[in-house]
Amino acid sequence: MASRKNRRGIAWWALVLLMAVLILWPLVNLEAKMATDTGAFRRALDYPGLGSALVNTLVLAVGTVVVAVPSGTALAWVAQRTPPRMRGVVAFLPMVPLMLPPVAKVAGWTYLLSPRTGVINRLLRETGLFSADTGPIDIYSMTWMIAISGITLTSFVYLFVSASLRQRGVELELAASAFGANGWQTFRRVTLPLLRPALTYSTGIVFLLALGQFTTPLLLGGPRNIEVISTVMYRVASAPPVDYAMGAVLAVPLLLFGVLVVAGQRWAIGDERRFVAMSGPGGRVGTRSSWWALIPVALYLGVAVVLPLAALIVVSLVPYWSGRIDVASFTFANWDRALSNPTTQEAIATTGWAVLFTVVIVVPVGYLCALALVGRSGAPRLARRGVDLLSSVSLSMPAVLLGFAFLLTYTEPPFRLYGTTAMVVVAYVSLMVPHAIRPQLSAMMTVGPEYAEAARVGGAGPLATAWRVGLPLTRTGIGVAASLVVIMVVHEFAVSLMVTSPGRRVMGALLYDATNFGTAPQIAVVALLMVVVSSIGIVAAVLIGGTRSLERT
Amino acid sequence: MSGVEIARLCKTFGGDVPAIDELSLAIEPGEMLVLLGPSGCGKTTLLRCLSGLERPDSGEISIADQRVFGDRVEVPTHRRDLGMVFQNYALWPHMSVVENVEFPLRYRGRLPREERRRRAHEALSLVECEHLGDRLPSQISGGQQQRVALARALVGEPSLILFDEPLSNLDYRLRVQLRQQIRELHRSLGFTGVYVTHDQTEAMQLGSRVVVLERGRVAQVGTPEQLFRSPKSPYVADFLGIDNRVALERKREGWLANGLPAQVADGHGLPEGRYDLFLRASDISIGTPAAMAGYGVTLAATLHDKVFAGEVTEWILQLGDTRIRAVSGHHDVAALVGERVVVGFELKSAVVFRSEASTPY
Ligand SMILES: Nc1ncnc2c1ncn2[C@@H]1O[C@H](COP(=O)(O)OP(=O)(O)OP(=O)(O)O)[C@@H](O)[C@H]1O
Ligand SMILES: [Mg+2]
Q: If you count DSSP H runs as helices and E runs as strands, how many of each does chain B have, helices first?
């Protein structure tokens, strides 16, 4: 009896160990460099522009929160008031931007808003109201970086807030207006306080994401030397010989902030499982609905998806980009050239393999972790805490920081994986574990334990039970996890840049190369290829998981 | 033949109040043992310990003469040769009805596919659901789902079948119907079963023997007749529905019932002192003083309410500061609500406990 119990315990501890090796070890390994190299602290302080990078990081993060949280909340509130017939589709629309790779979006916006050749700037100048021959909008400024990252992260806020709104329905607001409160009073006194958990959670997440964000500051801050911590870390990582010890020092503020935000959220909302339960059945009581409510949703979709995507398509079809759209000159030459280029082909293949291997590894790992977290699997309590903690560590550390740590750890012995697809896969897996856990966990929580118990009583062992009952019943959750992982891996930029070698690029890295050495149409083609690859991945994941997986993402 | 032995079983969750407390019990082969008790007394926990879904802290369990727990042995659930019927059916929603029923056969010897199908259909016809084989569980009614779950528990002819309140999600009519069906299946198939319920009618009708649990311990075991005739404690009496409680006191100068004077023709030799009487509603009569003259105990009460309930009529009587209930098939007592009536019963038909000790007199 005792030995059986221990053996089961050991399997769970092995899972914790695996997660610790994947997530914790690189970080510990990196920070340990600091201890052995006493000069690192000095070098970090002397690093040119570190002070302003710190300030920029904070300004960008706070600004992003200020843009994203109100607009995401408003969008969720408005989407609930669209006519009932449309609500199913409308509810999903504000999440569409999440399916577009951020790099592609940023590239698209530069074609719209760059000071000299941006289409929108050109149109504004043609109105005659502006005298200069550049601008009036400068996308390479802090203000517009905040705007762009705010627009991007609005979708996240929408995701959390709308789940919370849907779950509790509108009865409480109706009650308030029945007692004579007007619209604004109802919103302030009823809606807002009830949304506090969702708002706290999304503010935390958005702040964290904005703090560690990399794509926008790298692509938009570069030209004017607006650096943030994550771009500084990237510069350190890409200047051989890499000064890991100094990078470790630079990582400390990001690390501390991550820990603080996660701790704060747990304190404010309780554990993850309470959050999962927030996606309940929709409230069916009618609100006053209006077609006007569609306008903000359409506007957001236009700004966040349609405009940048259209810009990319147009630019990918012109021979060279001057900011003028001349339909007669459209050509597929850029596409032909890119697709016949062996570097592009290899990057597509590498991305494809990396995504495939990552999904195949991380979804089962996430399944086991979710199983451990459900708490009826008999996983030891401490092991459960371990899984929970490690997954939130991975969630709260900026990708740049993790990428830096991976670069160090997997370049060194005993791994020595630099230049291989394996290194990319290991890095992606570590990054994606929490995203693979959550959908599967919530699927397991809705299913309940009796089905598995009935199978055990019926004579099926643990493996047979998992195969015949557990897996089929969590299929939707598995599909969601797979599609989420595909989307996020294809979109991943920071880690991709850091852990791929010049000989083994993934598409994100290829796109960055193009922004440095290529022409605008080349960039646009690669960005669109990323969109295509991630769409294929999403479709494949939906086919595995059933059609319901997307709406749960 | 198979039976179950449970010895000194203990199980405590988190806190310090045990859910199962040093419980010992023997279940005879072919017996349907009903576990009865109020919510939270440990019925489900005991059942889950038997199935291996819960691990006891200590004690021993044997099923069919095979040790499944205790003495450094713990046989996992799937090797205990069990069947189980769950309160919420727990039919796997992604398998058809016949696939559900066939499931336990996959793991009992190597049966060819056709043989499995044949036996599954046989089990389904036992519960009159043979025509539903190809449907999904979501396409059949609640009552049918529970019948199918029953077939699934029976199909492998396990040594022990566990029932955890299988009827409590069904409406009244279905409950009665299915209860009778389980009773008949038990009689014809002769399986050993443990049946959890908190409904005393169900317990009485299904149990070969009934166990009343009280805070994780056995309060009393016996056939339904034994329990109903002589409950060992007020707790058991109360739980079996013998819930008319009268405080009787014998003083030198006479008798008091709930503090009011009572006429006792036959005191059955009770010494002076206080007693708690538990009376079945059917053992209490009411009528005019003349009609009640023949009863061993008579006392005056006020008719509080009269409830016509079809086959019987219920009279709610105010007796001092408590109410009691009388039931009879005679509907023709002429008293009106609010009037004084005379209540009569026999002391020998009551269950009598000494007040302080709660021990049967
Ligand atoms: N998983 C658990 N964790 C903690 N306490 C539990 C757990 N399961 C049961 N208990 C406690 O053990 C005691 C017995 O519970 P059990 O479920 O066996 O009662 P029951 O007799 O089946 O009640 P019911 O009629 O309501 O189903 C209760 O006090 C309950 O709160
Ligand atoms: Mg129970």
A: 8, 21
Closest C-alpha residue for ligand 1 atom 25: B39
Q: Average pLDDT for consecutive 10-residue bins of chain A (553 residues)? A: 57 88 85 80 82 90 93 85 74 78 87 83 79 78 91 84 69 66 71 75 81 86 85 83 82 82 67 38 51 83 88 85 77 81 84 88 90 77 84 81 84 75 85 85 81 91 87 82 82 80 80 82 86 81 59 42
Q: DSSP labels for A278-304?
A: T--PPP-SPPP--GGGHHHHHHHHIII
Asked if residue B14 has its Cβ within 6 Å of ligand 1, the reply is yes
CA-wise closest residue to B274 among B258, B290, B261, B285: B258
* One CATH from 1.10.3720.10, 3.10.450.50, 1.10.8.60, 3.40.50.300 for A1-36+332-553: 1.10.3720.10
Q: Tell me the sheet residues that pair with B342.
A: B287, B300
> Nearest-CA residue of chain A relative to B99?
A468
Closest CA to B239 of B22, B39, B31, B33: B39
Q: Which residues contact A543 (CB under 8 A, 6 or more apart)?
A: none
Residue minimizing CA distance to atom 2 of ligand 1: B13
CA-to-CA distance for B211 and A247, rounded, in angstroms? Answer: 70
Shortest-distance atom of ligand 1 to CA B213? 21
User: Which residue, among A537, A545, A543, has the nearest Cα to A473 in the 3D structure?
Assistant: A545
ipTM rounded to 2 decimals? 0.82
pTM above 0.90, yes or no: no
Round to whole Å and give the CA distance between A176 and A180: 7
Q: Is the CB of B333 under 6 A from ligand 1?
A: no
- Which architecture characterizes domain A49-273+292-328 according to CATH? Orthogonal Bundle (1.10)
